[in-house]
Amino acid sequence: MTGTNHVLLLSCLLSRLASLFGSPADVEHQWALLGSCPSWHADPLKCTPNITIHEIQGIHQYSPYAGAAVAVAGVVTGIVDRSGFYMQDPQSDDDPRTSEGIYVYTHKAGLQAANVSVGDMVTVRGTVSEFRYDSAALPLTEIVTDMDQQGVTKCPGLFGPDSIIHPVSIGCHAGGPGERTPPLAVIKNDGLNDSLDIAEDGLDFYESLEGMLVAVKDPIAVGATDRFAAAWVVNNRGACSSGCNSRKGITAAPETNDFNPERIQLVTSSAIRRPSPFTVGDTVLEGQAEGIMSYGWDNFRLLLTKNITPESGGMQPTRNSIFVPEDRATHLTFGSYNIENFHISGERPSRIAKQIVENLGAPAVLALQEVQ
Ligand SMILES: *[C@@H]1O[C@H](CO)[C@@H](O)[C@H](O)[C@H]1NC(C)=O
Ligand SMILES: *[C@@H]1O[C@H](CO)[C@@H](O)[C@H](O)[C@H]1NC(C)=O
Ligand SMILES: *[C@@H]1O[C@H](CO)[C@@H](O)[C@H](O)[C@H]1NC(C)=O
């Protein structure tokens, strides 16, 4: 060990000891961190955290530390957009309600300056913020770094050798090692600010994973990919889901208060190549979908960090039979068609005309809906 490293180590140990006495509630964690000092190559003062991710995330939708200035450490798990990254604490607490992951909002310039890669151990200095893009949205907890002061410090060795982040699996065996099962019926049936009820409430279950690396086991698509490249799936090909139907979709049952919180939205991210579109009933070649549980556009959603390839489930569109009379002189046929927000432009009119002739059998009287 060089002289400089001795000085770094000493100041590391001293700063750790100082924080040990400063926060008696977290003695075990601080002691655990003490062990990692010798391998540091970075500035111990900038690397020393003063709070953990699970303390920031807490057991509510909103962080108890919103607005506080913090120094918090984690391992980079995903760079999924141009404005920041996700990181996770490899040393989790025993409470499944508190998430171990968080989004770090650096702005574009900050992300370039930080130059982090997945797997890097970092300490982030910034302000805890609850981001909501509209008043109906749930909050996404994030650390906002100050662009002027380099807010992200790379701290190799910070967590010692145990720094590999294993995804939490969403599967059928709750309580299995690292495995959790989502609630099947209730979206949310208590107050927004009550403590998280992850066994019963879908919104609370996903909040407890917010910012964490998650793998959905054996997903099957219960909806086709939409124009924002998002697809809805359930885990284990629906083996432990409720309401799967013969068309490989999933049906809500308001009469039994079953609104399918087990549906998980997979979305593409800048970390992967955009997957081919899913059709209902498709599974994935890789056997699981891995990504980071986040929140945006009014939904919890899994931002994919590994490429996936849909594997066809062979579902075909249904075709209803229609009655077409042989003698049109003595029979009158009626049809109705919702031509959805119709106005004359492009190829839509001829496509709709073709459907009226071929799929509807050219009814004599046709009622149209949504003509603008
Ligand atoms: C935690 O660290 C941040 C960033 O350095 C600092 O602004 C804040 O005052 C510290 N909080 C405590 C309680 O020490
Ligand atoms: C970014 O980090 C990599 C690996 O740590 C290093 O090789 C590279 O020089 C860095 N780039 C900049 C612009 O600092
Ligand atoms: C929940 O708590 C947040 C933050 O403390 C507050 O802004 C919000 O108004 C509360 N919502 C309800 C429904 O009490």
Terminal-residue CA separation: 77 Å
- The share of residues in extended strands comes to 25-35%
- The helix/strand order is HHHHEEEHEEEEEHEEEEEEEEEHE
What's the mean pLDDT score? Answer: 89
From the helix content, strand content and strand pairing, which structural class follows?
A: alpha/beta
Number of domains: 3
CATH architecture of the largest domain: Beta Barrel
User: How many beta-strand runs?
Assistant: 18
Which word captures the global form? Answer: elongated
Q: Percent of residues in helical segments?
A: 10-25%
Q: Taking Cα atoms only, what radius of gyration do you get, to the nearest Å?
A: 26 Å
Give a list of the ligands. Answer: 2-acetamido-2-deoxy-beta-D-glucopyranose
Number of helices: 7
Largest sheet: 8 strands, mixed
Identify low-pLDDT runs.
Answer: 1-8
* Strand order across the largest sheet: 8-7-9-14-15-12-11-10
Q: Could you say what the CATH topology of the largest domain is called?
A: OB fold (Dihydrolipoamide Acetyltransferase, E2P)
- Please identify the top-level CATH class of the largest domain: Mainly Beta
Signal peptide: 1-22
Keywords: Signal
